[in-house]
Amino acid sequence: MKIAIIGGGISGLSAAFHLERRRRGGADVRYTLFESSDRLGGVMRTERVEGCLIEAGPDSFLSEKQSAADLCRELGIADQLVGSNDAHRRTYILVKGRLVEMPDGLQFMVPTKLWPTVMTPLFSWETKLRMAREFFAKPHTANGDESAAAFIERHFGPEVVDRLADPLLAGVYGGSAERLSVRAVLPRFLDMEAKYGSLSRAMLAAMKKRPANGARPIFTSMKDGMQQLVDAVVAELDPGAIRTSSRVMALGREGGDWVVLRQDSTAVRFDRVIVATPGYIAAGLLRSVEPRLASLLGEISYSSSVTVALGYAAAGFDGRGGKQEDGFGFLVPRSERKRLLACTFVHNKFPHRAPEDRLLLRVFLGGSHDPAALQLGDEEILRTVRDELQQILGLTAEPRFSRIYRWERSMAQYEVGHLERVAEIERLRAGLPGLALAGNAYRGIGVPDCIKSGLDAAAECLRCK
User: What is the phi-psi region of residue 25: left when phi exceeds 0, alpha when psi lies from -120 to 50, beta otherwise?
Assistant: First the structure.
């Protein structure tokens, strides 16, 4: 059986890894992975500068999602997994120009502790009363999809949307709470609402069921950066099966075969094909095979982002209020009218990524609210970042180094109606034997989600007849 994999990000690499394991186990399977760029791993890319470990893309993954850690165990690199430094897991929100710490007991925008919620300056008294009333909400089953903003506002009011929901979801999805689907991005909250009514009561009940000890860190990464995972997967693959700098222009069907048309106009036949690309690229590849499927894939929107890494000498890192000395970083609501979306204090979140005499920051711009950020020149990006860090942190120190990474149309947006669209995509795909889809366009954007999608796609190709 010959299988083509189109796309060399972590989804496509995971699919190739599954097929390679089956091949070594005696299965009659051969695969070829096509990647249009000259490197593998997609947005997972790590650099070292002046002793600092810099992530150009994702710096970690949620520990509760097991696919990434499971893959590391299969690769024999589980000893390289490192957890976030949760002793410093404090996050700040910029409110009216000053940083306000998120109160203790706030579980992803849901309050679970009374006194910290009452005392925090993050919310007005009107919002605090709204939160108190929410505790007595009755069970409710949603009728259809709605935006995450509408859902959160229904429970806690518009201030929580502005100061928490929108910046948190912008940090995860690069999108807007007003457009993201609650069914797609916060399905657990819907389940809680249906069973308890109150999200606060539901969260408290869930917390009681957690083990008293042995809690995992919120985030997990690799000792030598996320590219370490990519490199470990690539090392397990057949080098002769990898085609970098090899763009696929279209897919076709001839008889029962899939035809892969490459940029050099050569056509190669395969029994199965896994498309592990962004939805808009998959749409172009499949347009002549199934126009309706291509149209639906093309309707999945994407946001772009800019990541800026800044390294400082610890001795000269000046600022006000000490906010730079602790915590994981801060989020910036749209109402603050800044270009910065968020800033991570990397040296606190993962201390091993910066020497003791260095401090490392990662700043984020762009997203669905500011697509023009991607078009800014390097000098303008750095000037904007430094100006706003000075306004927020009082930071005037000159960075020892900086790195800028642009990610165009890299983050799928799960907008209202997304799951219905994905269900129709699956229905149409099922009518094309030998085709599997993988990537962040469908049912999860995180690294573990992408790994799972690639593994599932490979397994499906081996099952189908």
Answer: alpha
